[in-house]
Each structure stands twice: as C-alpha cells, then as structure tokens.
Amino acid sequence: MTPLLKDRRLIVSALVFLLFLGIPAVVHDTFALRMCTEAFMWIGLAVTLDVMAGYTGYLNFGHQAFFGIGAYATAILMMKAHWPFPLALAAGGALAAVAALIIGIPTLRLRGSYFAIAVWALARAIQQFALIAAWTGGPDGMRLTAFLDPQFFFYVMLGIVGATFFALWFLLERAPFGLKLKAIREDQESAKALGLNPTHLKIQAFILSAIPTALIGGVFAYWVTFIDPGSTLGDLISDQAIVMLVFGGMGTLIGPVIGAVLIFSFKTLFWAYLSQYEVLYIIILGAVIAASVVFMPDGVLGKFMRKGLRRAARPESAPPAAAAGKEA
Amino acid sequence: MSLTKSAIFATIATVMAGGALRAQEFKIGVVVELSGDNATGGNVAKRGYDLWAMAVNETGGIQIGKKKYPVKLFYGDAQSNPSQGAAAAERLITQEHVDLMFGPYASSVANAVGPVVEKYKIPMINGSAESPLVWKPKFKFVFGSIPPVNFTGAACIDTLAHLSPAPKTAVVFGSNDTFSSSTATAFNEALIKQGIKVLKFNIVPEGQDLTPLLSAMKGLRPDLICFGGHDEELINLVKDLHQIDYTPKALLMHYGVTEPAFAEALKGDANQVFGGAVWTETTKTSSKILWKDSQTYAAASLKAFKVAADYTQGGCSAAGIAFQVALQKINATPPLSEAKREELVKALEAVDVETFYGRIKFATDGDYFHANSGISSLTVQIQNGVVKAVGPAKVAEVPTQYPMTPWAKR
Amino acid sequence: MELLPQALVDGIMLGAIYIAIAIAFSLVFGVLHVIDFAVGEWIMLGAFAGFYLNLWGKVDPFLMLPIVFIVFFGLGYLLQPVIQRVLSGHKGNPLLMALVFTFGLGMIFRGTAQTFFGFYSHSIPSHFSNGSFYFEKGSFFLTISSVRLAGLVYSGVITLILNYLLRYTDFGLAVRALAQNKEAAGLMGVNNRRTNKVLYALYTGITAMTGVLIGVIISVNTKMGAEYSIFAFFVVVLAGMGYLAGVPAAALLLGIIQSVFLVYLDPGWTLLAVFGILYLILVVSPTGLFGKGWV
C-alpha cells in the first residue's frame, strides 16, 4: 500500500477540495454558488451509488429512497418537532442507517439483477407511502422555513460530500474493507472460501452508501425549502446518478466525480442557454448512456485516465482476494 | 486617431449604447416548465406570457408618462421540478437582472420559487398555479391572477345543484397529485354543503385504471360523477365509463376538459361533460387594455399560435396586464430599483382593473393572500365539441344539456 | 358481495393486458438474459404507430396489428446485434451493462417521441370500443366491455402462438436449446446469432402490437412508458424470470390485486400494495410464485 503522502490521487483530491473551499471568497454570484452546491450534491450521489454498484457489484436502482428518507426526516423534524437543522439532519442520517440495515438483511441475499429490481420496487413503495401518508403532506409536499444563504449551503454540501469522499477513500481504497468488497463483487463463493462473510460486508456497504445520501437529502430539503414525493423519491434522482456513475467509471471514487461534473455541467449549460431544446437533452442523455455502455464500459476514467493513475496507485502486493483474506 | 484609441472609443460607445438600450425596456423573467411531466401546461403558460409581451410591444411598449418601454422576456426552464424552478428563478434574477417575474404552471414549482423572489424582492405574478397552498406563506412579493381551485370547484357544484331534476347522489374521485386532490376535495366539500349525498370519495394513485372502481360504483347509480385529474386521466375516465356502459346524469371534471386534446381524443363522447374554468373564449368581458374582450383575445391567440386559448393561457396574459397597470400607476421606469419594486407591490395591491380575462383585484387579507379575488369561476360544458359557459346564471351563454345522453345513443 | 364477480372479471380484464405486455418480455429475459428497461417505450412507440396509422389510413386498429408487428419486428431485428455486443462484453457485469444500455435506449425513444409527437394524450378509436355485454340476474350483475374482451382474446392468441412456436417448431427448439445452454446449442448447429435476432424482433413486434391495444383500451401518451415497464417487471418477477407458463397466472393476479383494492379497500393504497407485494415476493422467493424462475 502506497504511503499516505505518496498517494498521488489522494493528494490531488485533497488539493482540489481545498480549492473548492476557497470558491465563495472569490465568487460572489449567488447563482454560481447555487450551481456549485448542486454539483457537489450530484458528486455525492454518484459516489455513494458507486459504493454499492462499483465496489460491491450491486446496482441500486432505489438509491433515491435514502435521499428521500433524509429529506423528509429533516423536513418533518424541523417543521413539526421544531428541531434545529443539524440535529434533524443527523437524525435523518441515523434513520437511513437503520433503514439500510432493515432493508439490507433480506434484500442483499438476492443476486445482482434481483436486488436491483427489489430495491427499486421498495423505493417506489416508499414513494407511494409518502404520497398517501398524512404527516408527509402527501402529494402537496412539505414546506420548510426559508433560509436562503447560498454560502451556508455551499459549505454544508461541500463539507458533507467532501467528508464522505475522504472517508470512503480511506475505507475503500486504503483499508482492507474495499478489497473485501471487490472480492465479493468478483466471486462471492471464493470470497466465502477465504473466510469473508459476504452478507455482513454487503450490509455494511449498504449502510455506508445510505448515510451520506440521506444527509445530502436533508440538506437538499432545507436548501430548496420545498419537497414533494416526486422530487425527492422519484426516479429523477437515481436515474441521473446512474448515468453519471456509468459515464464516469464504476469501481473507483474519482470516476463518479468526473462523471457527475461532466454530466452536470453539460446539463446545466443546456438548461441555461438551450432550454427551448430541452427535449433534445433527454435524447442526448440516453444516447450518452447507451454509447458509454457500448464503447466505454469503464467510463471516462477507464478510457482516458486509467493508465496514468494506475501507475500511481497500484499496490505492490498480491491479488485483492488473498490480501483481503489475510487481513480479514 | 490611432487604431487602438478608436477601438477603445468604439468599445466604450457600444457598451454605453448597450447600457442605454438596456434601460429602455422592462426585463421580465419567466419560470415555466418547458420540459418534464408538466411540459404541456408549462408551454400553455408560456404562450400566455408571450402573447401579452407581443401585444404590448406591438403598441410600442408600456406607456409610462410620455415614453413607451417595450418588454423583454427571459425564460428559465423549471423542468417540472421545484428545485430546478428555484434555480431558474435565481439565475434569471442574478444573471439576467430581471425586474419582474412570471410564475410557473404547477403549484409545486411555484412553492419553491416563492421564497427566492421574496428574498430578492422581485414581484412575481403566477398566471396558473391554482393550489390553495401557494398562498399560505403570505409572501409579500407573490401574486396570482387565478383564484384558488376551491372557489372554482364550489362554483361548479353550485351550478349542478340547481339543475332539474336536482341531483341527489354523487361520487368523487381524485388523482393523487396536489392539484387533482385539491380539486376533488373542493368538489367533495361543496357537495356536502349543497346537501348532495357523497356515496364515495376516493383519492387514487395517478394514472391508475379505474374500471373496477367504476364498475363497483355503477351499482350505486350516482347522479353525479366528479373527478379531479390531468388530461390523460380525464380521457381514460370517459372511455372507462363508456366501456362499462354507465352514463351518469352529469359528469364534472376540471382542468383538461377545456383543452382541445380532450374533445379530439373522445369525439362524440366529450359532449355534455362539465368542467370548471375561470375564463372561456366567449366569456362576456370588456376592457380598455390590449384586447377589448374575450373574443378579440381568442382571435389573437389563434392567429399567433394556431391553437385555441384556454383559461391558463388567459390568466398568464392577464398577469402581464396587471404588471402593466401597476407600473403605469407608479411611473416606474426600467431598471427597477428595490425601492421602486416595493412601491410596485403596493400598487399591485391597489390594482382593480377589468381585462379581457375578467376583473383583477388581488386579495390583501384572508387565507388566499394576493390571489385574484376579483374574478369568479364559471361552469362550462362541452357542446358539439365546443366549450360553452353554462353557469352561473348571469353569464350562461347556452342552456345546460342535462341529463347526459347515454353513450350508446351517441 | 354482489360486487365480487364484477371485481374479479375486471381484474381478469386488466390482467389480460398485463399478460400481453409481459409474455414476450419474459421470453427475451429467459433466453437472452436481458432485462429490457425500454419495454414501456416499445409499447408507447407501438401505440403511436397505431394512432397515426389509424389517423391517416382510417382503418380499424385491430386490422392494422400485423403492419405494426412487421415494422417493429424489423426494428428489433436490426437493434439486437447492438445489445448482443453489450452482452458479450468482458468488462464489468454484462447483464447489468445490458440493463443500463436498454435504460439509455428507453430515454432515446422517449425523448424522440416527445420531440415529434408532443405532450398531448390521444385515443385510438375502434369499432370494438362501442359495445359491451351486460348480464343481470337478481342482485348479481356483470358488465364486460367488448374492447377489453378483445384484449383478452388477443392475449390468449398471442400466448397460444408463442406456445406453439416454442414447442412445435424448429425455431422454438433452437430457442429452448439456447435457454438451456448457449455453447451446447451452438455445437448442436443452432445459429445463435440469428435465433437471438429473431427472438428479440419477435418481442419488439409483439410488444408494439400490445401498445396499439393499449391505445384503444386506455390512451396514448409519450409518458406512458414508465408505468407499463413497472407492470411488466412485476408480472415477470412474480411469474419467475424466464418462466413463461407462470406469466398468465401472475398477470391475472396483478389485475385482481388492483381490482380488489379499488373496489373493497382504499384505492389510494393500490400501488403501494403492488410494489410492496413485488418486494416481498422477491425477498421470499426470487424465483417467483412457482419457484421456476431463472436463478
């Protein structure tokens, strides 16, 4: 394992993060700050999705459920129980962790495709529930007290996404946990033979992907000041995150960041300056996904950047499974 | 003069000219759903705002004192998503520096845009959002040219309740989205008030096939069927009723009945369906501003867009007229300073004007703060493929056709 | 209680439509192992094809079903090799990649449809839409609409044809061989590539025809795809992925669940029940109600 200070990718990421911290000092345009905040949100969603999809090999088509749980928990606790934002946010994260545990135990026993559909069905069920329950406001949604401070949300979102990124970096790229997940992804049976407990690991990964997503959802609720089942529990969230992830490159942490930034920039430019051709955007997005899968299965990262980065970070030790087995 | 100097002069001159030009027009931001689930409605709203801008600019612009100032619209696509609506509003305000704002088609987006315009103190008029919840926060800078749906619902039930033979029983359904469920709730409450027995009141998931529900209800033989939903669901409901061969005495639905797609898709089956509206092309109105009555507006719309106008489009054009009148009152010239915009809010609150759409007078107290309380709702009925007003009595153009002719006999 | 026969009949009528949607989908999944996320968009495209053909040709949509089938058969035949390429990829998980690919494909279809067909809803008129059968005996009454009955007949015919194809033709033999063991089938002389293409084309053709049917019974709209994809998944999973014989039962069950909720319980809970049941069944028995799905 490359020593901490020599891990080039990590150093670069840390520098980029520090750079982002300085943005509000230089950029005062509130719209630009808003766009940056949203970009961070998508980075966070793509990266957390990758924990399950790329590292563990389980594509989560119901990712938006955690986002929605965080959003609604924060909204309900703040508006009905009058909790302060940080506390409500944390509660949302905790709730998502519990939900991930409860959902994960039965659902993660299933194979890849079945898991994808099962968790998608569950997410839709949760959305339906939000639509009919009285205390979520039903189809009318919920309003939060408006607190429109662009810098506040910029830092909160950057903070959460940044912390998530680096925490995941340590857990997935530097600690044995990541190798263990990859072992399960490659060959679950062999992993078991090496002494790993796939179910435990999968559930841990699931919880790990759920908590930041819920936190992001909570911030989203307070930031936009209005949530409804369509915008927080609908397919919009997970569809775009999947596109960003596949396009950027699954199985790494930098891939989804690249994918999120590229797709989000493209989408925003289109939306801001070409809005009369918005329908074309759907066609282009679909074409991008289809083309990525056919021509760039490893995403942008795999196609263009793999070679350079691989040299910087290749561990000198034995294949992943064995290494994981040794340290298990 | 050297080349560099003349280049510099030219640049300064252009910038100044541009700046001077900029001060010659009113910039209005338009946040509408150009894509996504509500794109149909969003485009209707856009047409309304566009038509007003075109008409005003044809006369040279809004007359302030001796000068005329044209208007320029800047669009932001809300993508049928509240957070995108808020982002679009912010972009229009901070980057395009709009003086005023026109609101979106859907109430959910309007809910998210409200805090943004309130923060930047940009007056906004919603031409479309009908949910009563839009008015709850009592934003100072947000107005609406359209009354909340509960008024429209109550007016329709009132007309139906006075038909003869009087309906005694009813069933009410609504799709589970914010607008449709508000509509259904409004129908339900009004029915109870009129003493009509509501045999069934259900909110159903969006897009659900209702045949089993309707078959079950057929046995109850309700006189009235009232349904709140969107265009596709309205078409499905009529088709389902035809398929199970049940014709109630009256079928009441809300927005979507007035859309041409409804009559086109259903052909003869669309006839005699009742709907609620705030305005139709034949409503009796008279105005001195831009269009002298409904028919003039309808003709202008047909000429410009080759599509018949409905009340959402009318409401959006009327929103423009409200701005126009208020701006004239305070002699405002662009660009509008914050102080001037505050003054504009007061002027809007004092507006009381007759337009092609009807009377515009924004409420200054009560539950529907800044909604248009000057206009009253109509009950319409499709007769021979054309939407006609049939209630209240003093604005009825034609007598109602009641009870409905059974499907099989059409 | 008098409502029960009607509720059951309505549920069966609803289920008939779902059979049509799911049966070809299940076949494709069973053999090609492709979960086509674009199934709803194929239905949508078929519905629009039916709508415009009827508008211009003034012919009853039921008579135009063969045309729609041929057109979409051709489209599927041409498209299948691209999907095949994705499936035979060596990177990542090919099945997951295929899923994502069809997802992108669905978006392309939807965006294209919205560009050219707009956002309004339409209905396809038919001679069958005007009739219904009514039985009454004492307090027991039953209404069956002709057009939905036609839908039931359509589903039955399609199921029987597919069944015949699979059991009694060489093509069917090839398909079943492929489903069991790709390599062995190839060794036995089955032309894998062509069989795959024909199979996928069959699926798109049938699904598009079903779209026309839905346009007649329900309505046509560029956004209708998502909803039918959901029902297709539900039925196929419930039946057991790739287990064709389970599809009719699963589809009818879905129809009856919806019907029961609408009539006897709170209709607002219908979709919650549908998704909840789908989830529970997957968790308890991923191989479907009959335990015969592809594992």
Q: Gist?
A:
Chain A has 328 residues and is mainly alpha-helical. Chain A contains 16 helices and 2 strands.
Comma- or semicolon-separated keywords:
heterotrimer; B: 410 residues; alpha/beta; Rossmann fold; 2 domains; 7-stranded mixed beta sheet; 5-stranded parallel beta sheet; C: 295 residues; mainly alpha; two-stranded antiparallel sheet; 11 helices; 2 strands; 73% helix; 4% strand; globular
Can you describe this structure?
The complex is a heterotrimer of chains A (328), B (410) and C (295). Chain A has a single domain, classed as ABC transporter involved in vitamin B12 uptake, BtuC (Orthogonal Bundle). In chain A, 77% of the residues lie in helices and 1% in strands. Chain A is built from 16 helices and two strands. Chain B has 410 residues and is of the alpha/beta class. Chain B folds into two domains: 3-147 and 287-360, Rossmann fold (3-Layer(aba) Sandwich), CATH 3.40.50.2300; 150-277 and 378-409, 3-Layer(aba) Sandwich (Rossmann fold). Helix content of chain B is 41%, strand content 18%. In chain B, the strands form four sheets. A seven-stranded mixed beta sheet of chain B has the order 9-8-10-11-12-15-16. A five-stranded parallel beta sheet of chain B has the order 4-1-5-6-7. In chain B, helix 2 (39-58) packs across helix 11 (311-329) and helix 11 crosses helix 12 (338-350). The longest helix of chain B is centred in the N-terminal third of the chain and has 20 residues, at 3-22. Chain C has one domain (3-223). Chain C has helices at residues 3-32, 39-57, 61-87, 94-117, 146-168, 170-180, 182-187, 192-217, 225-239, 246-263, 270-284, and strands spanning 132-137, 140-145. A two-stranded antiparallel ribbon of chain C has the order 1-2. In chain C, helix 2 packs across helix 9, helix 3 (61-87) packs across helix 8 (192-217) and helix 9 (225-239) packs across helix 10. The longest helix of chain C is centred in the N-terminal third of the chain and has 30 residues, at 3-32. The model of chain C has no long low-confidence stretch (mean pLDDT 87). At the A-C interface, helix 6, helix 12 and helix 14 of A face helix 3, helix 4, helix 9 and helix 11 of C.
